[in-house]
Design brief:
This protein has no helices and 9 strands. It is an all-beta fold. It is elongated.
Length: 117
């Protein structure tokens, strides 16, 4: 169980995914994390597709959050729509862009120290 009494820390990560899977965020060892914000933007003058996956380190399984999501030219999308995503130590969020250098991913998380992870 996370130790809320030890407080939490906030972390924001920005990544430009490549055409091969790019890790956007990995939960540190001995931590749990709540993803508070997760957005994607297309920085290109044409529509581009992006795939986002969640990797569950406990079951070593990948799950699609969005598969071949088409983003209009110069557009932005909030993936979570005011929801949150709970992650455990070594869990990951991975993004794959149709064309490298065209998509930006921004993730803000709240990390909690969890000595049992």
């Amino acid at each position: 169980m996370p130790r809320v009494v030890d407080g939490s820390k906030f972390n924001t990560v920005g990544v430009t995914p490549g055409a091969a899977g790019t890790t956007v965020y990995t939960v540190p060892a001995n931590h749990a994390a709540i993803v508070r914000h997760f957005s994607l933007s297309n920085n290109n003058s044409g529509a581009k597709k992006v795939t986002v996956q969640y990797y569950d380190s406990k079951s070593t399984t990948y799950y699609f959050i969005a598969q071949d999501l088409s983003l209009a030219a110069n557009s932005y999308i909030n993936i979570l729509n005011s929801n949150v995503l709970a992650l455990n130590a070594s869990d990951k969020i991975i993004a794959t862009a149709e064309t490298a250098g065209t998509i930006s991913a921004l993730v803000s998380v709240e990390e909690y120290y969890d000595p049992n992870r």
